[in-house]
Automatic annotation (TrEMBL):
GO terms for biological process: tRNA modification. Residues 31-34 are annotated as: Interaction with substrate tRNA. This is tRNA dimethylallyltransferase. It comes from candidate division CPR2 bacterium GW2011_GWC2_39_10. Monomer. Belongs to the IPP transferase family. Its cofactor is Mg(2+). One of its GO terms (molecular function) is ATP binding.
Amino acid sequence: MIVIIGPTASGKTSLSINLAKKFNGEIVNADSQNVYREMDIGTAKPSIEEQQEVPHHMLDIVDPDQEFNVAIYKKMAKEAIGKIQEAGKIPFLVGGTGLYIDALIYNYHIPEVKPDNKLRAELSLKDNDELAAILDELDPEAAGTIDPNNRRRVIRAIEIIKGSGKPLSAMRSMEGKPENVLMLGTAFYEKEELYERINLRVDQMFEEGFLEEFKELADSYPWDIPGFNALGYRQLALYFKKEIDLSMTMETIKKETRNYAKRQMTWFKRNKDIVWVRDEFQAFDIVEKFIAQ
């Protein structure tokens, strides 16, 4: 299996499609927001045309009002990968959600922690900064990678840690990375260039109809659905509630997306199994040699 990871807007989609076409592969999504149906523009989901170039899996598998978590992802992704391998093809696991990828590659032992309504009620009274401080005290590593403004994810992380009595990092298997897995990281752009790509991507999303996409969702679902916690959608909810204007909405999305990319790199840089590539030529060469082995 080939894993392609990196921060948002770093070129993962294009690289993965080109590699999968070259090496008889199929793509398995590893982005926590791309699992939602009806949320295409704001999640930068591969386009219909891109999906037609190479078979994609783990896209559009739940509605925006359905709960989804790493345990569900791990189970479904393992099944998708197994079917690809049974067909004699190479699975390409592609995305930027580090927890999802690590849970799959390093076989995280995710505890069955049921919702704790009493704890959730207590945590719901706290603001984002207070929640982030609690998570940081319980598990600094997890706190450095989870969006502090995504209250649902922060509360669930606290709930799992308290319910299991272990930090998220302790769920990692001691077996290490399987030998038949190659992990590639996209390091195509320096930080400032990556940030500029993020800014341009947000502008492009609005040009492609992000406002209209959100309005259709808001007409169909209540404000408190899981999908509206996603980056971009969370800020647009404030805009439609008339709490911020459109200019502030766009700037906030850009800023929080840049912060998200920074958190992604913090997570990935800790992983010594990742081989960072500077361009597609280097990636092609490494993958070709890996498959030949």
